[in-house]
Fold:
Amino acid sequence: MIIVKSLSEIRNKIIEIKSNHKKISLIPTMGNIHDGHLSLIRDAQNYDSIRIVTIFVNPLQFDNLNDLKNYPNTLEDDISFLQKEKVDYLYIPIRDEILSDIDNSKQLPWGFNNMLCGKMRTNHFNGVFAIVKKFFEIIEPTYVFFGEKDYQQTILIKYIIENYFDKIKMIVCPTIRNSYQLALSSRNSRISKISLSETSAIIQALKKTCIDYYLTTGLKDFKKLYLLNDVCRTQYVEIHDERLLHQKHGIKKISDITNNRRIFIATYIENIRLIDNQSLEEYDNL
Ligand code: AMP
Structure:
Protein backbone atom coordinates (compact mmCIF):
# COMPACT_ATOMS: atom_id res chain seq x y z
CA MET A 1 0.00 0.00 0.00
CA ILE A 2 1.35 3.39 -0.96
CA ILE A 3 0.62 6.22 1.47
CA VAL A 4 0.21 9.61 -0.14
CA LYS A 5 -0.17 12.91 1.67
CA SER A 6 0.46 15.88 -0.56
CA LEU A 7 -1.87 17.10 -3.26
CA SER A 8 0.86 17.13 -5.89
CA GLU A 9 1.78 13.54 -5.05
CA ILE A 10 -1.81 12.26 -5.31
CA ARG A 11 -2.32 14.15 -8.57
CA ASN A 12 0.81 12.49 -10.00
CA LYS A 13 -0.40 9.06 -8.89
CA ILE A 14 -3.78 9.63 -10.55
CA ILE A 15 -2.06 10.62 -13.81
CA GLU A 16 0.03 7.45 -13.59
CA ILE A 17 -3.01 5.22 -12.90
CA LYS A 18 -4.98 6.80 -15.74
CA SER A 19 -2.09 6.47 -18.17
CA ASN A 20 -2.17 2.74 -17.44
CA HIS A 21 -5.88 2.77 -18.36
CA LYS A 22 -6.90 1.59 -14.92
CA LYS A 23 -10.18 2.46 -13.24
CA ILE A 24 -10.25 3.86 -9.72
CA SER A 25 -12.44 2.85 -6.77
CA LEU A 26 -12.62 5.48 -4.07
CA ILE A 27 -13.57 4.71 -0.47
CA PRO A 28 -13.62 7.91 1.65
CA THR A 29 -13.42 7.52 5.44
CA MET A 30 -12.68 9.53 8.55
CA GLY A 31 -10.45 6.76 9.91
CA ASN A 32 -10.82 4.61 13.03
CA ILE A 33 -11.31 1.78 10.59
CA HIS A 34 -13.84 -0.87 11.62
CA ASP A 35 -15.70 -3.71 9.93
CA GLY A 36 -18.21 -1.26 8.41
CA HIS A 37 -15.39 0.47 6.52
CA LEU A 38 -13.80 -2.85 5.67
CA SER A 39 -17.02 -4.07 4.06
CA LEU A 40 -16.84 -1.14 1.61
CA ILE A 41 -13.17 -1.80 0.93
CA ARG A 42 -13.83 -5.50 0.35
CA ASP A 43 -16.78 -4.81 -1.90
CA ALA A 44 -14.54 -2.62 -4.05
CA GLN A 45 -12.44 -5.70 -4.71
CA ASN A 46 -15.25 -6.97 -6.94
CA TYR A 47 -14.61 -4.11 -9.35
CA ASP A 48 -11.58 -4.28 -11.59
CA SER A 49 -9.91 -1.15 -10.31
CA ILE A 50 -7.23 0.45 -8.16
CA ARG A 51 -8.58 0.94 -4.62
CA ILE A 52 -7.89 4.30 -3.02
CA VAL A 53 -8.96 4.83 0.59
CA THR A 54 -8.90 8.32 2.08
CA ILE A 55 -8.67 9.16 5.76
CA PHE A 56 -9.66 12.70 6.52
CA VAL A 57 -11.60 13.99 9.53
CA ASN A 58 -13.37 16.76 7.72
CA PRO A 59 -13.70 19.72 10.12
CA LEU A 60 -16.27 21.39 7.84
CA GLN A 61 -18.88 18.73 8.54
CA PHE A 62 -18.74 19.04 12.35
CA ASP A 63 -21.18 21.44 13.97
CA ASN A 64 -19.84 20.55 17.41
CA LEU A 65 -16.20 21.32 18.24
CA ASN A 66 -16.08 18.76 21.06
CA ASP A 67 -17.22 16.04 18.72
CA LEU A 68 -14.43 17.01 16.30
CA LYS A 69 -11.83 17.17 19.10
CA ASN A 70 -12.86 13.76 20.49
CA TYR A 71 -13.09 12.02 17.14
CA PRO A 72 -10.99 8.86 17.58
CA ASN A 73 -7.56 8.93 15.96
CA THR A 74 -6.11 5.47 15.46
CA LEU A 75 -3.95 6.05 12.40
CA GLU A 76 -1.34 3.37 13.09
CA ASP A 77 -3.95 0.65 13.52
CA ASP A 78 -5.84 1.96 10.51
CA ILE A 79 -2.75 1.70 8.33
CA SER A 80 -2.13 -1.89 9.37
CA PHE A 81 -5.79 -2.86 8.73
CA LEU A 82 -5.64 -1.31 5.28
CA GLN A 83 -2.33 -2.95 4.52
CA LYS A 84 -3.83 -6.33 5.39
CA GLU A 85 -6.68 -5.59 2.98
CA LYS A 86 -4.09 -4.89 0.27
CA VAL A 87 -5.52 -1.48 -0.47
CA ASP A 88 -3.49 0.11 -3.29
CA TYR A 89 -3.31 3.70 -2.03
CA LEU A 90 -4.10 5.45 1.22
CA TYR A 91 -4.51 9.18 0.76
CA ILE A 92 -4.24 11.18 4.00
CA PRO A 93 -4.70 14.76 2.84
CA ILE A 94 -2.81 17.60 4.46
CA ARG A 95 -5.54 19.60 6.16
CA ASP A 96 -4.57 23.09 4.99
CA GLU A 97 -3.91 21.92 1.48
CA ILE A 98 -7.29 20.25 1.04
CA LEU A 99 -9.18 23.07 2.75
CA SER A 100 -7.56 25.86 0.75
CA ASP A 101 -9.91 27.48 -1.74
CA ILE A 102 -12.75 25.24 -0.76
CA ASP A 103 -16.25 26.60 -0.99
CA ASN A 104 -18.84 25.22 1.41
CA SER A 105 -21.39 27.94 0.82
CA LYS A 106 -23.21 26.06 -1.94
CA GLN A 107 -27.00 26.37 -1.71
CA LEU A 108 -28.03 22.73 -1.44
CA PRO A 109 -31.61 21.58 -2.06
CA TRP A 110 -34.07 21.98 0.82
CA GLY A 111 -33.79 18.54 2.43
CA PHE A 112 -30.09 18.83 3.14
CA ASN A 113 -30.67 21.62 5.65
CA ASN A 114 -34.22 20.89 6.75
CA MET A 115 -34.54 17.16 7.23
CA LEU A 116 -33.03 14.52 9.51
CA CYS A 117 -29.31 15.11 10.25
CA GLY A 118 -29.25 18.11 7.93
CA LYS A 119 -31.81 19.82 10.14
CA MET A 120 -30.02 18.94 13.36
CA ARG A 121 -26.44 19.65 12.26
CA THR A 122 -26.13 23.11 10.79
CA ASN A 123 -24.07 23.14 7.59
CA HIS A 124 -23.12 19.49 8.01
CA PHE A 125 -23.98 18.55 4.46
CA ASN A 126 -22.40 21.70 3.04
CA GLY A 127 -19.16 20.50 4.63
CA VAL A 128 -19.53 16.98 3.28
CA PHE A 129 -20.47 18.36 -0.16
CA ALA A 130 -17.37 20.55 -0.36
CA ILE A 131 -14.88 17.84 0.59
CA VAL A 132 -16.44 14.96 -1.35
CA LYS A 133 -16.68 17.10 -4.48
CA LYS A 134 -13.03 18.05 -4.10
CA PHE A 135 -12.04 14.39 -3.66
CA PHE A 136 -13.98 13.45 -6.78
CA GLU A 137 -12.21 16.21 -8.74
CA ILE A 138 -8.76 15.18 -7.55
CA ILE A 139 -9.13 11.41 -7.66
CA GLU A 140 -11.39 11.03 -10.73
CA PRO A 141 -12.89 7.73 -9.57
CA THR A 142 -15.03 5.43 -11.69
CA TYR A 143 -16.58 3.82 -8.62
CA VAL A 144 -17.26 5.32 -5.19
CA PHE A 145 -18.34 3.34 -2.13
CA PHE A 146 -20.54 4.68 0.64
CA GLY A 147 -22.41 3.03 3.51
CA GLU A 148 -26.19 2.87 3.78
CA LYS A 149 -25.72 3.60 7.49
CA ASP A 150 -25.37 7.26 6.50
CA TYR A 151 -28.42 7.16 4.26
CA GLN A 152 -28.91 10.92 3.92
CA GLN A 153 -25.24 11.18 2.97
CA THR A 154 -25.80 8.68 0.14
CA ILE A 155 -28.53 11.02 -1.15
CA LEU A 156 -25.99 13.86 -1.11
CA ILE A 157 -23.52 11.74 -3.08
CA LYS A 158 -26.29 10.98 -5.62
CA TYR A 159 -26.89 14.73 -5.85
CA ILE A 160 -23.18 15.42 -6.44
CA ILE A 161 -22.95 12.70 -9.09
CA GLU A 162 -26.16 13.77 -10.84
CA ASN A 163 -25.06 17.39 -11.05
CA TYR A 164 -21.28 17.28 -11.51
CA PHE A 165 -19.91 13.81 -12.26
CA ASP A 166 -22.43 11.84 -14.25
CA LYS A 167 -19.88 9.14 -15.17
CA ILE A 168 -19.21 8.11 -11.56
CA LYS A 169 -21.04 5.06 -10.25
CA MET A 170 -21.90 4.93 -6.55
CA ILE A 171 -22.11 1.59 -4.80
CA VAL A 172 -24.12 1.74 -1.58
CA CYS A 173 -23.08 -0.99 0.88
CA PRO A 174 -25.37 -2.43 3.55
CA THR A 175 -24.98 -1.46 7.19
CA ILE A 176 -22.72 -3.72 9.21
CA ARG A 177 -23.98 -4.33 12.75
CA ASN A 178 -22.57 -5.95 15.84
CA SER A 179 -24.08 -9.12 17.23
CA TYR A 180 -26.64 -7.01 19.12
CA GLN A 181 -27.72 -5.28 15.88
CA LEU A 182 -26.06 -1.95 16.71
CA ALA A 183 -24.71 -0.29 13.57
CA LEU A 184 -20.91 -0.14 13.77
CA SER A 185 -19.59 3.38 14.12
CA SER A 186 -16.32 5.00 15.14
CA ARG A 187 -18.30 6.75 17.87
CA ASN A 188 -19.23 3.41 19.50
CA SER A 189 -15.69 3.21 20.88
CA ARG A 190 -16.47 6.19 23.11
CA ILE A 191 -19.42 4.54 24.84
CA SER A 192 -18.29 3.47 28.26
CA LYS A 193 -20.70 3.78 31.18
CA ILE A 194 -23.36 1.48 29.96
CA SER A 195 -22.17 -1.46 27.99
CA LEU A 196 -22.42 -1.63 24.26
CA SER A 197 -24.89 -4.50 24.53
CA GLU A 198 -27.25 -2.39 26.63
CA THR A 199 -26.93 0.51 24.21
CA SER A 200 -27.70 -1.78 21.31
CA ALA A 201 -30.74 -3.20 23.08
CA ILE A 202 -32.08 0.28 23.84
CA ILE A 203 -31.78 1.41 20.23
CA GLN A 204 -33.30 -1.82 18.94
CA ALA A 205 -36.20 -1.51 21.36
CA LEU A 206 -36.77 2.11 20.36
CA LYS A 207 -36.75 1.20 16.69
CA LYS A 208 -39.12 -1.70 17.18
CA THR A 209 -41.52 0.27 19.37
CA CYS A 210 -41.77 3.08 16.83
CA ILE A 211 -42.23 0.73 13.88
CA ASP A 212 -44.92 -1.27 15.69
CA TYR A 213 -46.67 1.94 16.70
CA TYR A 214 -46.58 3.22 13.12
CA LEU A 215 -47.76 -0.07 11.60
CA THR A 216 -50.59 -0.31 14.11
CA THR A 217 -51.81 3.29 14.13
CA GLY A 218 -50.43 4.80 10.92
CA LEU A 219 -49.18 7.70 13.04
CA LYS A 220 -45.66 9.08 12.86
CA ASP A 221 -45.51 11.17 16.01
CA PHE A 222 -43.02 9.13 17.99
CA LYS A 223 -42.03 11.78 20.53
CA LYS A 224 -44.28 10.41 23.25
CA LEU A 225 -42.60 7.03 22.84
CA TYR A 226 -39.10 8.29 23.49
CA LEU A 227 -39.33 11.45 25.58
CA LEU A 228 -39.81 9.39 28.74
CA ASN A 229 -36.67 7.39 28.15
CA ASP A 230 -33.88 9.03 30.11
CA VAL A 231 -31.10 6.58 29.22
CA CYS A 232 -30.85 7.91 25.71
CA ARG A 233 -31.72 11.44 24.64
CA THR A 234 -33.39 10.92 21.29
CA GLN A 235 -33.14 13.70 18.73
CA TYR A 236 -35.49 12.27 16.14
CA VAL A 237 -37.27 9.17 14.97
CA GLU A 238 -38.85 9.58 11.56
CA ILE A 239 -40.26 7.35 8.85
CA HIS A 240 -40.04 8.42 5.21
CA ASP A 241 -40.81 7.02 1.78
CA GLU A 242 -37.44 6.67 0.09
CA ARG A 243 -38.49 8.14 -3.27
CA LEU A 244 -40.17 11.16 -1.76
CA LEU A 245 -37.17 11.68 0.48
CA HIS A 246 -34.86 11.75 -2.53
CA GLN A 247 -37.15 14.25 -4.26
CA LYS A 248 -37.02 16.55 -1.25
CA HIS A 249 -33.25 16.52 -1.66
CA GLY A 250 -33.43 17.59 -5.30
CA ILE A 251 -32.70 14.18 -6.85
CA LYS A 252 -34.18 14.00 -10.34
CA LYS A 253 -33.40 10.43 -11.35
CA ILE A 254 -35.57 8.44 -8.97
CA SER A 255 -36.70 5.62 -11.24
CA ASP A 256 -34.17 3.17 -9.79
CA ILE A 257 -34.96 4.03 -6.18
CA THR A 258 -37.19 1.52 -4.43
CA ASN A 259 -40.25 2.98 -2.82
CA ASN A 260 -39.67 1.43 0.57
CA ARG A 261 -40.45 3.16 3.83
CA ARG A 262 -37.41 3.70 6.00
CA ILE A 263 -37.04 4.53 9.68
CA PHE A 264 -34.35 7.04 10.75
CA ILE A 265 -33.08 7.46 14.29
CA ALA A 266 -30.65 9.86 15.94
CA THR A 267 -30.07 9.44 19.63
CA TYR A 268 -27.50 10.47 22.23
CA ILE A 269 -26.13 7.87 24.59
CA GLU A 270 -23.74 9.36 27.13
CA ASN A 271 -23.57 12.47 24.96
CA ILE A 272 -22.42 10.46 21.98
CA ARG A 273 -24.60 10.88 18.95
CA LEU A 274 -25.53 7.64 17.20
CA ILE A 275 -27.60 7.31 14.05
CA ASP A 276 -29.30 4.38 12.41
CA ASN A 277 -31.78 3.70 9.64
CA GLN A 278 -33.49 0.64 8.28
CA SER A 279 -35.97 -0.19 5.58
CA LEU A 280 -39.32 -1.19 7.07
CA GLU A 281 -39.71 -3.83 4.41
CA GLU A 282 -36.42 -5.34 5.53
CA TYR A 283 -37.54 -5.02 9.14
CA ASP A 284 -40.83 -6.82 8.41
CA ASN A 285 -38.83 -9.82 7.29
CA LEU A 286 -36.69 -10.04 10.41
P1 AMP B 1 -16.96 7.47 8.31
O1 AMP B 1 -15.52 7.12 8.55
O2 AMP B 1 -17.82 7.32 9.50
O3 AMP B 1 -17.11 8.78 7.58
O4 AMP B 1 -17.48 6.37 7.29
C1 AMP B 1 -16.87 6.16 6.05
C2 AMP B 1 -17.77 5.34 5.19
O5 AMP B 1 -18.05 4.10 5.83
C3 AMP B 1 -19.13 6.02 4.94
O6 AMP B 1 -19.53 5.78 3.61
C4 AMP B 1 -20.03 5.32 5.93
O7 AMP B 1 -21.38 5.31 5.54
C5 AMP B 1 -19.45 3.92 5.92
N1 AMP B 1 -19.81 3.21 7.15
C6 AMP B 1 -19.62 3.65 8.43
N2 AMP B 1 -20.14 2.77 9.30
C7 AMP B 1 -20.66 1.76 8.58
C8 AMP B 1 -21.35 0.54 8.90
N3 AMP B 1 -21.61 0.18 10.15
N4 AMP B 1 -21.76 -0.25 7.88
C9 AMP B 1 -21.51 0.10 6.59
N5 AMP B 1 -20.87 1.23 6.22
C10 AMP B 1 -20.45 2.05 7.20
Notes: The chain has a mean pLDDT of 94. The pocket of adenosine monophosphate is lined by residues 29-30, 36-37, 39-40, 146-147, 149-150, 173, 175-176, 183-186 (CB under 6 Å). The radius of gyration is 19 Å.
